[in-house]
Structures are given as structure tokens and as C-alpha cells.
Amino acid sequence: MSDQPAADNPIDRMMDRASNALATTHYFEALRDARLALRRARSACDFDRMARICPPLLEAARQIRQQAEAVGIVRLISNPADVPRPLQPGCYLIQPPMIGADARVLRDAAFKAKTPVSVLAREPLTKRGLWPIVGVGEISVRVQIDPPVPLERVDGHITKDGFDGEVPLPWFQRAGEALGDAAIARVPDDLHPHWRVDELLEALEAVPEHEGLHTALAEACRAAVGTPEPRGRRPSPLDNPFSF
Known about the structure:
The chain contains 7 helices and 5 strands, in the order αααββαβββααα.
């Protein structure tokens, strides 16, 4: 952990800018600086600072998400032409033939344009009548939930259901919560504290709007303070030949 005085620590200066941006409702600037500060603190194994960065990071993400939800509609996006030009605030559900990575591209484009959006992606209807909701970052996170209405399977259709109806905002909000909860649940409690922090960081990149995920990361950072570096490498799903 860095012992650099707070006044001279570039991470603290970055967070001062983030805090000022929050106070003046410049939420995208606050989110940008807090994200960068979090990564730099992790590079320095400064878990105490990471824990303190999480609350303002969460607040910036919450404000942007709430602005998106305040529009009150969910746009169903099946191809790039469905995305309004210029990009409009609101909630977006990506569906096939587009994929989870397209949701990340849309989110990144909105961030650059300082346009408040909340974005989810869904995959084709399963044989059990569920929609897989996916978040993509360095890793992918999935959870299967009921679609907004019961759907019949249409095997010849790319979405397996041909859905083109309305997506209620409450359903969209529940889907986002379920995806974030799944991201937390996939991280084993018995991982080395440093590795648990890294797993949750990766999950947060895939599901950046989930409040509970920010809280779980902050708790993991506090648990990692003062712990020695782990030996070896972090376990991977590839270590388990039956993981797929």
C-alpha cells in the first residue's frame, strides 16, 4: 500500500476532482475520474483508498442511471439502425442479432457523448422460456429470467421468440438487479482477498450500474487491507474441465 502523503497523492487529487464534479452535478466527469482512480489504487495495492473511492463512484453511476430511467421508456434494439441518432437518453435493451458486446459499445458511446443511458442485452429465448440477460466486460455475466410476457418458442427465428413488443421499465430494472446479483454470486467467498477484489472489479466492468456490486467491492477492498500478496495465480474457470 502506498505511504505517499495524501496531499501529494495523485489518486487523492483525482478524487478531489471527482467529488467536486459530483457536487456540481457533472456526473460523467465524476464517473470518469473515480473509475481511473479506482484502477490506479488497485495497481498500487491501495485497498483502503479503493474502498473510499467506491461510494462516490456508486453515486455518479446512480445519478446517470436515474436520469436514464426518468425518461420512462425502454427502447428495444435489434440492429444498429434502431439506435436513435443522435443518441437519446433512456433505457436500451439489446437483442439478437446484436450481442452483449454491442451493449457495451452503446454504453461507451453514450459515456463519451455524456448521454445518460442504462443498457442491458438479452440472448435468445431458452427452451425453458427464459431470457438470458448478459453483461460483457473483460468477463461475461449471465442470468436467466422470465421475459416481460410469456413467450412461445419459435425455433426458426433468431431470437427464438420473435419478440418486438414493449419492455416495461419495472421489468428492465428487475433484470438489471438480477444481473448484478448474479455477478456478485459468481465470486467465491473463499478466494484470497486480493483475488476477490479483482473478480468484483471485473464484474463491475460487465455490470457497471448495479449498486450492490459497488457495495460488495467496497467490502472486499476493506477485507483486503493489510493482507499479504497471494502466491501463485488467480484461479480461472479454465482450470475446471467441466466448467463449460
